Amino acid sequence: MTGTLTRPGLLGRHDRNGLLRAVGRTVPLRPDVFRQVGEHLAVAGPGHPFEGVRFTSTWASRGVLDVVLVHPDLVAEVSADRAVDLGVFRQPLRFQRLRLDATVADVPRFGQGPAAAAG
Fold this sequence. Notes:
By secondary structure, the chain is mainly beta. About 5% of the residues lie in helices and about 25% in strands. A hairpin with a 5-residue loop joins strand 3 and strand 4 (about 20). It is globular.
């Protein structure tokens, strides 16, 4: 997740091999939405798949984003443009809603179904 626990953005989804991959980020969330999402996030311990990874703000940008690694167990429904480049959505994702009724195991792997993301 980019940002902080109180101002999150979404990034990850498991691939066909079960590995968590960065696949995009959301447009800025509305204050009521980032509070709702933030209530369900927990900071990850050592060994997170994104540990040591640097994220930039835009394509070809050198500006590094602040990242808070969280447990990748929260499911969100997003809408996405179909344009994907090297496994990453080209356009920002639009957050639709949290899916507290679903687990990460319920979400099709990236490239195998609808565009839901685990953050």
